[in-house]
Amino acid sequence: MTRSAEVSERAGVTRVPGANGLRPWTWPWLITTTLSRAGVAVVICLALWGALPAVVGWHPTTVSSGSMLPRLHVGDVAVSRPLGATVPPVDSVLLFDDPDHPGRLRLHRFVRVDDDGLLVTRGDANTSDDSTPVALSAVHGIGTLRVPWVGLPVVWLRERSWVALSLSVLVLVALTALAARARRFGFPEPDEGDGPGPPPPPTAAGTAAPANTDVLVAPRPPGRTVRTARRLGALGAVAVLVAVAAAPAESAFSATTSTRTSLAAAGYFSCANAVSAGSPYLWYRMDETSSTTTVATDSSGGGRNGVYGSAGKTASATRACSRDSGRAMTFNGSSGYLSSPALAGGPPNTFTLAIWFKTTTTRGGKLIGLGNAQMTASGSYDRHLYLTNTGTIVFGVYPNAVRTVSTTATFNDGAWHQAVATLSSAGMRLYVDGKLLGSDTGVTNGEAYSPAYLRVGYDNLDSWDNAPTSRYLAGTLDDAALYLTALTATQVSDQYEAGTA
């Protein structure tokens, strides 16, 4: 043993490489420590991102089901802000007391208001509305912020997934430890509690120690490295606790108002919601994917399936209402049509006809109406909407004389439009794109005949005002419906807005 080694052993010092007494950087350690610090920082930032809004009265909740996929995933933290004195808009995601499971929260989308003034909700991944509407007083807030993943420990703890929970804790501890050990590599830093290293070994007079000469470093008491580890560990624990503190919600993205009047005028998330709310007698969505099918499904729930002409139609890939699933049907203007079974009780004198259409035709044609033949030209025909050659829309009934109301604007511009006509004791009303464009309060009934069928895309139009060249409509049709009530102006407007929002 050399004398220098003997002195080092007695002094309790250690010989390490490098003139500065610290271990030099290596690429594996550089990458590892950088990634570990970044990982810890991401966890901490996500946790604080989800927790800090609670300081100002917002509500962080952990998503624990997949009913709001793909917008929100299990383990996300959704932050809801109080509504204050505002009414929640349709299509917003609300945090509210789960009406089916007392003591739990639910995060679902607000789709409409029912007849009792209650909020009807639905999960984005669900095919139907929630079974129980909720009162406005049960709403805690409106979904505003999504923080991904940070709530997963809550889900694992609730589901007793001990393996996943343990692995996540071990990964966080490992990242924290690696981030803390990064201090021991690289260039020296001032460190409280770290004493100065021993003097360099003696050299020849007037010369300095070579840059690559090993030096003796005495053991240092715990200092900045230990404190860094403790701080990172504490912040990691805070991250986990913040996630655990977020109350689980059964889906995804507060003070509330109890004003029913303003909510009753709210719209709907989709055209399907709006049409269903009106309880149609017949409702042909024309979602059929085959252009050769002859069966038109009745979506009203009454099972009154209609019949297509055997030719003259093509299933369209797009439909009028962008937020609805399904298709529309394009008719060729020479042979395509749709008819219903015979209406029970004959043609009604209180009703609503509604249909979406898109066309550029200059030959006009029947949009929707009633007639006494199912597949051929009717001999008695009224209570109908048709398009003139110029593109104006006419609503007509026949109380022993032709009575019509019509638009001055044209609608054969290739864009989607909705035409709605009502007849009741209040008279005739014609709406286009949610607006009342024509009315006649003096007409309250139409012609009496039997049987009566709903005709879509084709029927007789002889002797009617501004009768078009063609009885068949060349264009795309969607959501044809017959109601045995006269929809209100608000209901008509809600249907149109649901398709254009």
Description of the structure:
The chain has 501 residues and is α+β, with helices and mostly antiparallel strands. It folds into three domains: 113 residues, no CATH class; 105 residues, Umud Fragment, subunit A (Ribbon), CATH 2.10.109; 230 residues, Jelly Rolls. The chain is 21% helix and 26% strand. Strands 10, 13, 14, 16, 21, 22, 23 and 25 form an eight-stranded antiparallel beta sheet that branches. The chain has an eight-stranded antiparallel beta sheet with strand order 11-12-15-24-17-18-19-20, with no helix packed on it. Helix 2 runs parallel beside helix 5. The longest helix has 25 residues. The radius of gyration is 37 Å and the shape is elongated. The protein starts with a helix and ends with a helix.
Write a compact overview of the structure shown:
This protein is an alpha+beta fold and 501 residues long. It has helices at 3-11, 27-51, 152-158, 162-181, 224-245, 260-264, 271-277, 489-500, and strands spanning 14-16, 59-63, 77-81, 93-97, 105-113, 119-122, 139-147, 215-217, 247-249, 282-284, 295-296, 306-308, 313-316, 328-332, 338-339, 351-358, 365-371, 381-387, 393-397, 403-406, 417-424, 427-432, 435-440, 453-456, 474-483.
